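Researcher: We're teaching a course module on how sequence relates to structure. For the next exercise, students receive a sequence and then see the predicted structure as tokens, so they can try to spot secondary structure elements on their own. Here is the exercise chain.
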Amino acid sequence: MPPRRTIVVDGESLTPEAVGQVAAREARARLAPEAAARMRAARAVVERAIARDETTYGVNTGFGKLATVKIPAAGLAELQLNLVRSHAAGVGPLAAPETVRALLLLRANVLARGTSGVRPVLARHLLAMLEHDLLPAVPEQGSVGASGDLAPLAHVALAAIGEGELIGPRGVVPARRALAAAGLRPPVLAAKEGLSLVNGTQFGAAVAVLALLRAENLARCADLSAALSIDALLGSRRAFDRRIQAARPHPGQAVAAANLFALLGGSGLLGSHAGCERVQDAYSMRCTPQVHGAARDALAQLRRVVTIEINASTDNPLVFARDGAILSGGNFHAAPLAAALDYACLAVTTLGAIVERRTDRLVNPLVSGLPAFLAERPGLESGLMMAQVTAAALVSECRTLAHPGSVDSIPTSGNQEDHVSMAPWCARKFREVLERVEKLVAIELLAGVMALRFRRPLRSSPALEAVARAITRQVPLPRRDFPPHGPIEALAGLVSRGGLLQAAQREGIVVR
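Model: And here is the predicted structure for the students to work with:
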């Protein structure tokens, strides 16, 4: 295994790509010395406030509706421990290891900003857990995305202090035992430190950043599957001319059109119908850059928001060492993240819908000019009839999931926290939409490769022929009826990993 690169955690410069690399165990992370210095300076402000017995939210008061209850100095450590214990109320399936690694990194990064008022030992401990791959068991359900992701972050904090559970090779194990086996000593929480561990948007952001990387790859693969379908359907690339895109300069549309134009370059199928009577292709073919481009632009907005969020101070109160202030605010409210995720979810659902429409054109004998359902012996065989039905079902599920989660605020904490973002749910359902659209693209690729068989001896472009070869190497396709389930799942895996893009790149076409 090649040596892993090191990500410097400074609270300011983390990128989505770096998060993805740490989540995949391709990089390790360490705390920047300047970040530790900022943390010590902020901690000194908290210590001075404690020494003066100033009433400070979360330091010597209760939480939420109980913020008016003043806690005596003797109870400050117990206050933080009780907070972590009581807030670990998550339910449902456990977050995947990749998500938990991203979560640990993001939580350490926000502490490294030096506005949380905690000691550097907390950030270092989270990064040490990450280094040893000691991953807290974090249920995915239970956060409303304001006062931060309290429940999932509390499960992280509980494991970090040795009272929770970790995901082991053979299932869930007690955290204290696993930490001790790795030589890690759980920190004892001081004033404000429990609150700083649980208050923030990092669970929703962790799911969002990994979904973003996956969605950007999906957008590229969708351009590839579209080009294959358009060529197999004897479509034109005239609609992808750069002059048309320049007349309506949306960035994503321009990129998608350029990809399609390049992928279709050199196709023998294009030349075979140069003098045909068809003036324009159907919308699902001709408007591909507009629909795919809208998804790309939504993902660009999500990238902008996510990049800010993973380098932002999102807990409460915030400590400003320069002027010695401790200020209560609302940066834990994940409305920016929720709105961007909903926008991306809607756009990717629409992307999935146009993928299904092109798939239908490939299998539908009324419009394809190909054998019904791409069967060798229609009637005796059903070909991809049910694969298209599966695609229709997936699109319907995506449309239900695309209902905006950010509009579903519900009051909590005795009506003190009376407007919430629902960003974690927005992130999780966006991830679910991605899983379905990857399968939709896989079905389109399957249909496109099978359709090319009926266009022989004509050949598609070098890039698309290379993609077709890569598909059939991974998924042998017999010329008689076969169960489509296995090929669809295998191709969805290829889409998720981006393997087919490399086949086009070997022919000199980089799908951006």
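Model: If you want an answer key for the exercise: Strands lie at 5-9, 27-31, 91-94, 135-136, 139-141, 165-168, 171-174, 318-320, 325-327. The chain is about 55% helix and 5% strand.
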